[in-house]
Write a structure and sequence with these properties.
Number of strands: 3
Helix content: 25-40%
Strand order of the largest sheet: 1-2-3
Organism: Thalassococcus profundi
Structural class: alpha+beta
Largest sheet: 3 strands, antiparallel
Oligomer: single chain
Keywords: Signal
Number of helices: 2
Protein name: DUF2946 domain-containing protein
Strand content: 5-15%
């Protein structure tokens, strides 16, 4: 185990470095501003295009890195307030459907076959 620990640490550090490069590359890609649908024979292809109409690759963000983009969202203070007022609820008991409880059946069983 002591020999494996430095090797494992090095592998994990390289993994973090490689995934951070992937996130930086995804952030630097040209953002698609439109989608073009091409009908080719019996199938359709969807191509993302930039502002000049040139095809671009759709950015693929890994799920682990997407959480870092949450920092770009507005703070909760800028969101509209939510009403927390208590209100009474009125139920129409005359027309409410009442479910009948299922009839209970005996669940007794006989002794084991070996007796």
């Amino acid at each position: 185990m002591p020999i494996l620990r430095p090797f494992l640490s090095l592998c994990l550090a390289c993994l973090i470095a490689l995934t951070s490069v992937q996130m930086a590359q995804a952030r630097g890609q040209a953002r698609p501003v439109g989608i073009m649908v091409l009908c080719i024979g019996t199938e359709t292809r969807t191509v993302s295009v930039d502002a000049n109409g040139q095809p671009v690759e759709a950015p693929h963000l890994c799920p682990d890195c997407v959480m870092a983009l949450m920092a770009a969202l507005p703070d909760a203070a800028t969101l509209p307030p939510v009403s927390m007022a208590l209100r009474g609820v009125w139920y129409d008991t005359e027309h409410a459907a009442v479910a009948d409880p299922p009839e209970t059946q005996a669940t007794a069983r006989g002794p084991p076959l070996s007796i």
